[in-house]
Design a protein that fits this description.
Keywords: Transferase. This is GNAT family N-acetyltransferase. The protein is an alpha+beta fold and 517 residues long. The protein has 2 domains: 2-213, Aminopeptidase, CATH 3.40.630; 222-493, Nitrilase/N-carbamoyl-D-aminoacid amidohydrolase (4-Layer Sandwich), CATH 3.60.110. It has helices spanning 23-33, 35-39, 46-55, 90-93, 125-139, 163-171, 180-185, 242-258, 285-293, 296-310, 350-356, 385-393, 408-425, 484-493, and strands spanning 2-8, 11-17, 60-65, 68-78, 108-116, 144-150, 189-194, 207-213, 226-235, 263-265, 313-315, 319-323, 326-334, 340-344, 366-368, 373-376, 398-403, 428-435, 452-454, 466-469, 476-483.
Length: 517
């Protein structure tokens, strides 16, 4: 998105949001600005910049003249709460530069990077970039902008002056510092000195804690951080027509809407109930699942219509869908305006391969709703830690796990793994399963289920890390509220902080997914 246009003596200056295609050039320019850091290996990686653009694309802004990148800023949102001027380090506040701790519910825009190409410094480009940050802060109604400012001239005087004395001389106009003097002209105020902020010999490892207060900030209540979710513990039973199935589905959507839910979640393969219609009963497994895939259009038309009519998000469990002759187990998420996205199941059970010939997908996406970022892990996918880790690293706050399990052992595998995913990634995990029997549909004879919502295990959350759960094997609707703000408070200052305490020096996580969110 283009944010600003300005005619300059050097050509047309455009300030816009960074894109994936810009990453290599951004790294190149940054190395030219900070050759000392580049030589020491302290420079942005391609992986880090990809994550920045995934978790907070609005905060990654560049300036270009005649199409050539000449500067950039990188920002994330953090929660500083009642003690915004506390000591911190660069690595700590930016998650070692990865921004995985970006908090959309936070109160502060944190400036993690700013640079301008040496050939274009002193020409006002930094001012335009800072203005774009202020505009973003006001647009998002954040309380402030904070940052750790380099004291690039301090090392020359460190034997005579403390950092506080050096800053005071700059503030009083007795001395100029290339960075701090510019920041003060841009309206920032020094709130303190950050000791051991980062390995920066020119600043003797110190930094100024600078702040710009948003004059238009309007306090908001906490309701905006809450998301009400309804989980359908769905009993499959024989139906005579598609209309019978539609009536059962609409009953749950209508009830969820009556309870003012933001989202209703159905189980995996709940649409297989359609194979109990007359003329389809007892079809061989492979023939039956292909027949069900042919019903994709009426199934999706129903879900889209219900989402629009009742004004909520629907995670429509899953339904077999054929693409280019390949059969996938797809979970649709339908938005209140009737648009939708599809998440394929990526790990396929032996039974799904054997009985139905289903193939695994190769994408994992994070979906933005009006209350939270959600990811979907269909049943067996929840049993693979790396899938949930990937979604959490891309910004997911809630993981949806629709499942279809035939017995208690299978159900417990999903349940225990979902609880582990909630704790290790500090996210909510919402589960919904099928119950009941379908004796006329091969491979779908019996089912065991207990809808439940799991949270991290800490003081902010429910006892035992179980936000809510239904009685097992009883058809019902489970309704609960998820406070997204609690997630970020726990991530920042919980009894344990697993997202912040990962040993990136020992373990490296890689994926081959494109950034789909």
């Amino acid at each position: 998105m283009i944010l600003q246009r300005h005619e300059t003596p050097d050509g047309l200056l455009v300030v816009r949001n960074a894109e994936l295609r810009d990453i290599s050039e951004l790294i190149k320019v940054c190395c030219q600005v900070y050759p000392g850091f580049a030589a020491a290996g302290f420079m942005w990686s391609e992986e880090q910049l990809k994550v920045h653009q995934t978790v907070f694309p609005d905060g990654q802004i560049l300036a270009e003249i005649n199409g050539k990148i000449v500067g950039a800023v990188a920002s994330l949102i953090v929660e500083m709460g009642s003690n915004p001027y506390r000591q911190h380090t660069y690595a700590g506040i930016t998650d070692a530069g990865y921004f995985h701790n970006h908090n959309p519910q936070g109160d502060t825009l944190y400036g993690a990077e700013v640079f301008v190409h040496p050939d274009h410094q002193g020409k006002g480009i930094g001012g335009f970039l800072y203005q774009s940050r202020r505009d973003l802060c006001q647009k998002l109604n954040l309380r402030r902008i904070l940052g750790g400012g380099r004291l690039s001239g301090y090392s020359k005087f460190s034997d005579k002056l403390t950092p506080e004395e050096y800053v005071r001389e700059v503030e009083e106009g007795d001395r100029k510092d290339p960075v701090l003097s510019f920041q003060m002209r841009e309206g920032f105020v020094v709130r303190g000195i950050l000791r051991n902020y980062m390995d920066d010999p020119g600043s003797c490892n110190a930094a100024t804690l600078i702040e710009w207060l948003n004059p238009d900030f309007k306090p908001v209540d906490g309701e905006g951080t809450k998301m009400r979710v309804s989980c359908v513990q769905y009993q499959v039973r024989s139906v005579e027509t598609f209309e019978d199935f539609a009536a059962q589905v609409e009953y749950f959507v209508e009830t969820a809407a009556d309870y003012r839910s933001d989202m209703v979640v159905f189980p995996e393969f709940f649409s297989v109930q359609l194979l109990s219609q007359k003329g389809m009963r007892r079809l061989p497994s492979l023939e039956g699942i292909r027949k069900l895939a042919e019903m994709e259009k009426p199934f999706m038309d129903l879900m889209v219509s219900l989402a629009k009519d009742y004004g909520l998000h629907i995670v429509a469990g899953s339904h077999p869908m054929e693409r280019d002759g390949v059969l996938y187990n797809m979970s649709p998420i339908i938005y209140p305006d009737g648009t939708y996205d599809l998440q394929p199941k990526i790990h396929i059970t032996p039974a799904e391969k054997r009985y139905w010939g289903i193939s695994g997908g190769s994408t994992l996406q994070v979906f933005q709703t009006n209350k939270a970022k959600v990811g979907i892990l269909i049943c067996y996918d929840s049993e693979f830690p790396e899938a949930a880790r990937y979604l959490a690293d891309q910004g997911a706050e809630v993981l949806i796990v629709p499942y279809c399990t035939d017995d208690r052992q299978a159900y417990l595998r999903v349940r225990y793994c979902s609880q582990a995913r909630a704790i290790e990634n500090q996210v909510y995990v919402v589960t919904s399963g099928i119950i009941g029997n379908l004796p006329s549909v091969p491979a779908m004879d019996i089912h065991y289920g207990q809808a439940a919502v799991f949270s991290p295990s800490d003081f902010e959350f429910a006892r035992d890390g179980i936000q809510a759960q239904a009685d097992s094997n009883v058809e019902m609707l489970l309704v609960t509220d998820l406070d997204i703000g609690d997630l970020y408070r726990s991530r920042a200052a919980g009894s344990v902080t697993p997202r912040l305490d990962r040993r990136l020096d020992l373990f490296e996580f890689r994926s081959r997914f494109g950034l789909e969110s």
